[in-house]
Structures are given as structure tokens and as C-alpha cells.
From TrEMBL:
Signal sequence segment: 1-24
Keywords, alphabetical: Membrane, Signal, Transferase, Transmembrane, Transmembrane helix
Keyword Cytoplasm included in the entry's annotation: no
Protein name: Alpha-1,4-N-acetylglucosaminyltransferase
Molecular function as annotated in GO: mannosyltransferase activity
Pfam family, one: Gly_transf_sug
Gene Ontology biological process terms in this record: mannosyl-inositol phosphorylceramide biosynthetic process
GO cellular component: membrane
Parts forming coiled coils: none
Main location: membrane
Length: 412
């Protein structure tokens, strides 16, 4: 079945107000202040004229938070921070959202995936690739509302490819109906994009050809991956989660909103975590930004740098923003003791695959355990440690064992 996924102009931050409650109430007054900005049935959310529905929030609890959040929204003034973003208000927001009762208008969609270099069976320098790529699907199965949310894994190879088989063979027997592996066909996705995109295209006699040229001109897989997620979110909506991320609790309170995840002050989003309704103002603005750039082979041009430029546009006109920027604690982990539970330990990303003591390993496992009732995050982003071996008694090793236990899965 071919799912019809149903999860520079100005942007519109929707969840983004979240960011401001967390950031603006931190004691460090000069904190960076950003406004926060499914297959098949999931392509809904539009009226008969193809216009997006008015913004509707996933839960009444989240709706109640908005006035307080919006009151804290201010334009960006600086790209620097004093102190950090790990202050308790961010933790309080994560926990408040955990207690929401989201009602998704459409089946929820979470996208992830990989683009292998042409003709390659693996990536240069990567070790234990399948084992690492399996962690996100396992965390999805262990943490998400499987009756309402589905994972789509996109790749530029067939499902029969040895790497894809190694990743998913232990999972699909029991959990195949919750995960769909999709072949990413850039030309087909671009054609679908162009069948809907209508704004500001007078200068392009062949819009499809222009986007194909932009995509095919990219020698870096990173840049093609930035474009891939843009096309998928435009066509189908949903949340894109990079494959070097663990999901910790249900994303349902955040789905059906337009947002990007904050990473650091000089690069608000590394394009690892983004969400959009299909053909929303946010994703349409992002696409327009790409078309204005044209062919550009600079690394990150179509992803982090484009989103950075869009955030700067928001700072000039917050009222016309189209997405929101979520605080770092939502996915990036926090170090402040006041922003995590007493029995948790959040390792630096460079320590994710490193062996550690039993006590630390247990505390780190607690941070990502889906069974916790006191989460301080929605996910853990371990940032591209693909060349490191998975050591015994590391957080990665503990996560794998935890998911195997929860899912009743045995790995060879």
C-alpha cells in the first residue's frame, strides 16, 4: 500500500510559545528568546480548496498554556546565551505536556530514514550501523501510542537491502503493522510537491525540473537528506526525527503542530527534529526559501542554514511567524540538576556509547525509560557518534537491553 501520509516569506511559530515560557522565565535574563514556533488518511487537514485547516491544538491542556506562553514571546535580539537553557521551567513544560490528553485529528506520523551513498552497503567509517539504526525504531515501539501513531522509515534502497533487513528483521514479525519501510523516490516526491505548490513560481518555467536539479546537484548525502525531509513533510506532514535519536515518551502532544527543535545558539536547528502539517505555511515558506537559493552545494544550505535564516525573519515580524522553536530540553538533554529527576543522569552525547559504572548506567537508563512517570524530556539526541563502537554497559547498550525487555525481542 502506498500511504498518503496524513501526519522567504514569513514563518509562523505555533508550539513556539512553549519556548518562551521556558526561556523567558529563566533567571538568566539574556537567554536567547525564540518564538516556538499520515500516510493514507493523513493527508487530511485541508478543505475542499486545498487550504490548510485553522490551527487546532492536540489537547485542551496545551491550549490553556498558550496565553501564558504567548505573553513571553519576544523577537530574537541576540544569538548568544548567558547561562544555559536547562532551567526548571522547561522541565515543567515537558511534564505538563505529558499530562495532556491529545486528540489527533489524523493518524500520527513519525518519519525517519537514511540515504546510502549510491551503490554502497554502508557508510564510510560507520561501525555497528544496523544496531545503532535499530535503536530509534525500538524506542518508538516502546514509547509511542501505537494505536494512533505509525513510524515510516525512508531509504533510497529496497526493503530487501541487507542493511535494511538487518535493522528490521528482529522487529517486523511482532510489530510490522506499526512500522512501514518506504523507498524514497526523489523524482516522485518532487512531482507530488509541485502538484500542490503554487506560490511565487512565475520565475520557474519548470518547477519540477528546478527541484530535481537542486536535489541531483548535491554531492553530500547530508544535503540530499535535508531536501528529502522537506519533501516528505510538505507532502504528508508529521514529525521528522533523525535516526540518531531515542524517543522517550509519546510525541502525541506535539504532533499536528509546526515546530523545529532548538539545538544551540549559533544554529537553532540542525534539521534533526521538525514537525509540520502537510503543506502548512511553515513548510511552504521553507520550500520557497529553497527555491530562492537555487542550486547551492554549501553543506547545511537547505537545512540548518535555511531554518536559521527563517528564524531571523521571524525576529523582524513575530506576529507573522509560521512555526515555533522548542527548547533544548525537549530533545537535546539537560545538565542542570533542577531540570531532571534525582535518579537520572544525562550523559554528554560523546559518552552515549562509552562504558560506565553500573550506578551511572542505571541513572542514564532511567532518563530514557519509557515506563517512567516523571520524564524530563521527549527524546535523547546522541548526535552522529556513528564511528564509535557500542561498548558494554554503555547507555546505548543499556537502552538496547531495555527495549528488548519491554518489547519481548531477542537479538542475535
Amino acid at each position: 500500500m502506498d500511504p498518503t501520509l496524513g501526519t522567504r516569506t514569513l514563518l509562523c511559530l505555533s508550539l513556539a510559545s512553549l519556548l518562551h515560557l521556558a526561556w523567558a522565565t529563566c533567571e538568566a535574563s539574556n537567554l536567547l528568546q525564540l518564538p516556538l514556533g499520515t500516510l493514507g488518511a493523513l493527508e487530511g487537514g485541508r478543505d475542499s480548496h486545498g487550504k490548510a485547516d485553522a490551527i487546532s491544538l492536540s489537547s485542551p491542556e496545551f491550549s490553556v498554556l498558550l496565553p501564558k506562553l504567548d505573553a513571553k514571546m519576544e523577537p530574537l535580539t541576540v544569538f548568544r546565551m548567558k547561562g544555559d537553557l536547562d532551567c526548571p521551567p522547561c522541565l515543567q513544560m515537558v511534564r505538563a505536556l505529558r499530562n495532556t490528553r491529545p486528540t489527533l485529528k489524523h493518524p500520527g506520523v513519525i518519519h525517519t530514514g537514511i540515504l546510502l551513498p549510491e551503490g554502497a552497503d554502508n557508510f564510510d567509517g560507520w561501525v555497528e550501523t544496523a544496531r545503532k539504526l535499530r535503536l530509534l525504531p525500538m524506542s518508538f515501539l516502546a514509547s509511542q501510542d501505537l494505536q494512533n501513531v505509525k513510524l515510516y522509515f525512508w531509504a533510497n534502497v529496497e526493503q530487501t537491502h541487507p542493511l535494511i533487513q538487518e535493522i528490521f528483521a528482529p522487529l517486523l514479525g511482532q510489530y510490522g503493522k506499526y512500522i512501514e519501510i518506504k523507498r524514497f523516490d526523489a523524482a516522485a516526491e518532487i512531482k507530488k510537491v509541485c502538484s500542490h505548490y503554487k506560490a511565487n513560481i512565475q520565475s520557474f518555467s519548470n518547477l519540477t525540473g528546478e527541484l530535481v536539479k537542486i536535489y541531483e546537484s548535491q554531492e553530500l548525502v547530508d544535503s540530499q537528506s535535508d531536501l528529502m525531509r522537506l519533501f516528505l513533510l510538505y507532502n504528508y506532514g508529521g514529525a521528522w526525527i533523525d535516526s540518531d535519536t531515542l524517543l522517550v515518551q509519546s510525541l502525541s502532544p506535539l504532533l499536528e503542530e509546526d515546530w523545529v527543535g532548538y539545538m544551540r545558539n549559533f544554529l537553532p536547528n540542525n534539521n534533526a527534529l521538525s514537525s509540520s502539517k502537510p503543506r502548512s505555511k511553515f513548510i511552504t515558506a521553507w520550500l520557497g526559501h529553497i527555491l530562492q537559493l537555487g542550486v547551492n552545494t554549501t553543506r547545511y544550505a537547505y537545512g540548518p542554514f535555511s531554518l536559521d535564516a527563517m528564524v531571523r525573519e521571524i525576529q523582524r515580524s513575530v506576529a507573522n511567524s509560521t512555526f515555533r522553536v522548542l527548547p533544548g530540553c525537549f530533545f537535546e538533554g539537560v545538565s542542570n540538576k533542577g531540570a531532571r529527576a534525582a535518579d537520572e543522569e544525562i550523559p554528554k552525547r560523546t559518552q552515549f556509547f562509552n562504558s560506565t559504572s553500573l550506578e551511572l548506567m542505571i541513572r542514564r537508563r532511567n532518563y530514557i525509560d519509557p515506563r517512567s512517570r516523571n520524564h524530563s524530556t521527549f527524546g535523547y539526541h546522541w548526535h552522529n557518534q556513528w564511528g564509535k563502537k557500542v561498548e558494554d554497559s554503555s547507555m546505548a547498550d543499556a537502552a538496547e537491553k531495555l527495549y528488548c525487555e519491554l518489547l519481548n525481542i531477542k537479538l542475535k
